[in-house]
Here is the input.
Amino acid sequence: MSVAEAALSPADEVIINYHSHLLREYGSDDARVIWNSRFSQEQRFEVLLQVGDLNRASILDVGCGLGDFSRYLANRGISYGSYLGIDINPDMLDAAQEKYPGINCQCRDILGNPFKEGEFDYVFESGIFNLKTPNTVKRTFDTIDRMLDAAAKGVAMNFVSKLSGNDNPDVHYWLPSEIVAHVEKHRLPFMLRHDYRTNDFTVFVYKR
Ligand SMILES: C[S@@+](CC[C@H](N)C(=O)[O-])C[C@H]1O[C@@H](n2cnc3c(N)ncnc32)[C@H](O)[C@@H]1O
Here is the structure.
């Protein structure tokens, strides 16, 4: 069952309404639909792709939005084996199909409709844990766990950092230690990077 067919949770509704509003306001070519700027979006992508050798790898992009990560990988000359983008917002996916015809993406919630163990080499997310929603912390930790299940080699994910001191009322800021405490429970090798922007950090977790 797709997200569109399933009952939406209050958190899904907050997230979908937020991005659909921005999409209507600015259109799919404007970086404000996703991040503050193309530069900050691509800075995050550049760090994410350092998780491992992505050539020939199968990639899952959770919360793919407009699919820009797939274009970024291609522009960086990475010949990944396969790419699947999933998102809970059908408006974003329609815009992604229009922007990148032929992109492999589907409306799917990894929580309600998880993937098989190790179905993808690498699983990514960029910016999906940024909005304040009902139940943000549990939802985020459950999503991280499903991402880890789906990965055979590793997971790369980013978060907005509480250490920035920023205070946007729509944004859920994370302490790196909160994410590390959750990831530690899996007893897998991990790496934290909080060196590329003051308001963002990235965590890599390795399955092998
Ligand atoms: C800030 S945008 C980032 C899009 C893309 N990752 C990028 O950086 O260009 C966040 C996207 O994540 C999606 N999203 C948020 N939570 C999600 C979830 N649990 N599962 C799938 N998509 C989700 C939203 O619908 C939105 O399209």
About this structure: The helical segments are 10-26, 38-48, 68-75, 90-99, 136-150, 176-184. The chain has one domain: 10-206. The pocket of S-adenosylmethionine is lined by residues 15, 19, 34, 41, 62-65, 68-69, 86-89, 92, 109-110, 126-128, 130, 143 (CB under 6 Å). The domain at 10-206 is CATH 3.40.50.150 (Rossmann fold).
